[in-house]
Structures are given as C-alpha cells and as structure tokens.
Amino acid sequence: MEIHVISDGKQTVSELTKRMLMIHDEVDYIHIRERTKSVSEIMEIVSLLLNNGVPKSKLVINDRLDVALLHEIPNVHLPGHSFPIEKVRRMDPSLKIGRSVHSLQEAIECEKAGADYLLFGHIFPTNSKPNLAPRGVQQVAEICQSVRIPVIAIGGIIPNTIPMLSGVNLSGIAVMSYVIASDNPQNALQELRLSLVEVGNHENTI
C-alpha cells in the first residue's frame, strides 16, 4: 500500500522541510497541508524540498492550486471546501486530483466528478479530532467496494491500528503527526511499514 505523509501545520518552515527530507525516499507522497502559513512560506517549503532532491512527482499540494501551478507540481489535493473537481480538471487535465470525503455518497459523487483518488477518514480515534467519533473500518471498506478509484485511509493510523484494516481493499494509508511530529520520523515510518508488511503477509497466507 502507498504511504502518504501529510504535514500537520505545527512546524516552522525549517523544521518541516528538515523532517520531510529525512523521509522522502521512504514514502510514496508528501502532502503540503499548511493552512496557517502564508503563500510565500508554502512556496519556500516547496522550493526547499525540490532543491534538495525531492521529485515533483512525490509532492502533493493541499488546496493551494496556485502554488502547485507556479511550481508545476503534478498533484493537488482538494479538501471538501476547495475548488470543484470538474473546474480544476478542465483547467489542467494533466493534474492528478485527490479529494477528501467523509461519506459514501460524497465518495461516489467525487468519483463521477473526476477525482483520481479519495482520502477518507478519520478511521480511528485521533487527538486532532477529539470531539468527533471515528468513521470506522466498515465505512471505508464500503467505499472501497463502491468506487473504482483508489481510496486512502486517514485518521488515527498507527502500527497498532493497521492490522484492523486487514481485508479492506485500500490503496494506501495517510499519516500526519505520527510521523511528522515524531522525535524520530524515520523510525516512526519504519514501524508503519513493518506493520503493513505483516498485514500483507497475513493476508497472503489466508
């Protein structure tokens, strides 16, 4: 499964880029999701990552379509409150467009609108959403069965919860603070990978 690491908006430009440069070789995608930073700060993050060897193909710009276009980043992720998928697709058919969804109906609608993949959550309890009940494994499994595009699970995903996703036809997982806020992001990522491998090995023996 793919591993997506998403910035959590809590690090400085320097701290964030340092952590992402430590792990970029080991992940499939790095999402720049910095809602409280200025455009110039987000541009600086992207420039620093690119100048230090992170491929454009690994970067995903969350919401800031302008930043993605100015840096010619091929991947954008649109939150539910962001631009309509259809308009972004018409503007640049080459973009890979992801969309955050929170229900089966929304997932089906976004697939029809032209999204390339869906990010669904939160699956498990998470400190970032303490007052919201998790949507659970059953809901994400239903979405995976109902759409043909890839589905990425997010929310409370740590090595101990990954086994609960066994048997779900996910294309990947997305993590934020577990990796990006860790004292050792590389070790945190290795623990996630080990848990994913163990789940895969278990499924292959069934």
TrEMBL record:
Pfam families listed in its UniProt record: TMP-TENI
Keyword match Membrane: no
Presence of the UniProt keyword Nucleus in the record: no
Pathway: Cofactor biosynthesis; thiamine diphosphate biosynthesis
Keywords: Thiamine biosynthesis
InterPro entries in UniProt: Aldolase_TIM, ThiamineP_synth_sf, ThiamineP_synth_TenI
Domain (Thiamine phosphate synthase/TenI) ranges: 22-178
NCBIfam families from the UniProt entry: PRK07695.1
Protein name: Thiazole tautomerase TenI
UniProt gene name: tenI
